[in-house]
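Lab notes, practical 5.
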Amino acid sequence: MALAVGADVVVVHPPFRWQRDYARRFVEGVAELEQRTGVAFAVENMYPWRASAKREMEVYVPGWDPSQEDYANTTIDLSHSAVSRSDPVAMAVRMGGRLRHLHLTDGTGSAKDEHLVPGRGSQPAVELLEHLAGEDFRGHIVLEINTRKAGNRELRELDLLEALAFARLNFAAAPEAR
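Output from the prediction step:
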């Protein structure tokens, strides 16, 4: 399908532990698909599931942080980094040129995958966008926000406009170029 619509990147989640057959050769399978199709399969960061502040379950195989694996292409989702309480800027540095796709969003660090408008949570979205601009990032930046609580169409559109303005302002140039 990606080839039929001209997409150069497909975002994939690492498999769940209980998807044993899929998980067994996931890393190799992603590499084989990329080689066979010429499409980048960018593995997205996920998060440990939390039952409480002290109890976490690792449910993804080989793990929830793709910067720790040997994937050729990766994705950062800021809502997921909020849930995992990980530093997305440090993750981007570890990924280097393997980072092909960004889900620009936000989160507060709760156990919920919130997908807030960027700037409304605790994630260093500004710093990440500035870092990527400074690295001459040529991948995809996609707004992934939840507008269900907006109340009406007008408020939903304002949320979308705010998110787009945030992205354009903070990715415009690296701080030293301003």
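Observations recorded by the TA: The helical segments are 2-5, 20-24, 26-37, 78-84, 88-95, 125-134, 153-171. The radius of gyration is 17 Å.
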